[in-house]
Amino acid sequence: MSPILTTIAGLAIAAGVTACDSDASPADGPDQLASSVRDSAGITIVESSRPAPDSRLDWTVGSEPQVSFGAAMGETEYQLYQVGDATRLADGRIVVANGGSNQLLVFDAVGNYLAAWAGQGDGPGEFRSLASVHRWAGDSLIAADSQQGRVSVFDLEGTHGRTTTLTGEAGAALSSISSDPIAHTVMDVLPDNSMLTRSLGGYQTTGFWRWDHTYALIGADWGDGISLGEYPGPEIYSDSYQEGRMIYVLPLRHPFGKNTFTAAWGDLVAIGRNETYEIRAFASDGSLARIVRRDHATSAPTQEQLDAHFRERFANLPEEQRTSRLELAANVPMVETFPAYAGLEADALGYLWVGEFEPPGTEGGKPVWTVFDPEGRARGFVETPSGLTIYEIGEDYVLGKRTGELDIESVELWALARSAN
């Protein structure tokens, strides 16, 4: 079992830099929180207060999905399984990266199945581990293979154009960054069609660990890449357990562990390490352009909360498997604090959504996000549907995946209404 890791590490501002042009920015609308904007050696630093816990920005997601498909698609090869990503095209079609079949499945605007592109294999336009799909230059799509470190280009009718392996040793775009042969995968696409990539990771078989990854920007012309540095992945504990005559290694992602998140935020790349409530945004030349911070109160988890998490996590396993996993989980070390936040998403209008971390005992409600405007000032809290893994936020929709009973997956499109402010 090898976890797919998402990682990043921030860049430090040079020692001795002092803030200049400090200026408090008053709230400029009823939904605008108190914030300050200042400049430090050409880097914009934006700091905002935390919204009141029960407050909500006047943006709402519909009470039920407009489109939902995948629970029972008829022919088994078109059922959704291990969906890793989805995107909505300009004509309303939805393209799903279906990792279980390594196909790009295409559905119309109301969820009817249309076509299956690509498939399992090692040839051009084929995948071993289809992980993501993104709209790209010239009315095309790119899809990433997280096992082979390859990216394939398709037109909007599914015709394969090219396949490129993203490695420092063999890939021209990354050879200027590193001679390391470790492959990269595409994480996101910016408006100029440059690609945010991340090196693939591995795992350790024992102990508490984080894997470092390298991030880079590659232009739409596949020219030289620009390094964004190395960043650490999620905190994971690995150990072995025995079932019968077999010995297994199980990596357990720490439920309260730290992680790093990325998003294509307008023409910037947002990178956030959630040890603290801070997000750093980088320009297309790799320079640090903006630092966004929000007030955040830290709190410490307890051993009781950690134990309760694993009891619930393994509750549906057969008794022998549950017992062996709980014995392993008992060795997972405690972390000092809960994460400052739980994830990053950026929408089509340039707003950055930062997910609130849900401490134990508060799960089950609707996820809450702090929305930051395109300049980096906090606007307020917004709720999204419970159980929905978000892949894309458009001007007036939210697209994501839900996993229901018996692990049946469905892709859902929800309406998003924004206030005028």
What key phrases describe this protein's structure?
6% helix; mainly beta; five-stranded antiparallel β-sheet; disordered N terminus; Neuraminidase; seven-stranded mixed β-sheet; 421 residues
Write a brief caption for the model.
The protein has 421 residues and is mainly beta. It has helices at residues 172-175, 303-313, 319-329, and strands at 20-25, 35-40, 43-48, 60-61, 67-69, 83-88, 94-98, 103-107, 113-117, 130-136, 140-145, 150-155, 160-165, 184-189, 195-199, 207-209, 212-218, 226-232, 236-243, 246-253, 260-265, 268-273, 278-282, 288-294, 343-346, 352-355, 368-372, 378-383, 388-393, 397-403, 409-417. Strand 6 and strand 7 (94-98) form a beta hairpin.
Mean pLDDT: 87
Secondary-structure-derived class: mainly beta
Total helices: the number is 3
Let me know the number of strands.
Answer: 31
Overall 3D geometry? globular
> How widely separated are the two ends?
47 Å
* Gyration radius over CA: 22 Å
Helical fraction: under 10%
CATH superfamily (homologous) name: TolB, C-terminal domain
Q: Indicate the CATH class.
A: Mainly Beta
Parts with pLDDT < 50 across at least 5 consecutive residues: 1-31
Largest sheet: 7 strands, mixed
CATH architecture label: 6 Propeller
Strand order of the largest sheet: 1-2-3-24-23-22-21
**Tally of distinct domains:** 1
As for the CATH topology, it is Neuraminidase
What fraction strand? Answer: 35-45%
Please give a structural write-up.
With 421 residues, the chain is mainly beta. It has a single domain, classed as Neuraminidase, CATH 2.120.10. Helices cover 6% and strands 42% of the residues. The protein has three helices and 31 strands. The strands form seven sheets. It has a seven-stranded mixed sheet, with no helix packed on it. Strands 4, 5, 29, 30 and 31 form a five-stranded antiparallel sheet that branches. β7 and β8 form a beta hairpin. It is globular.
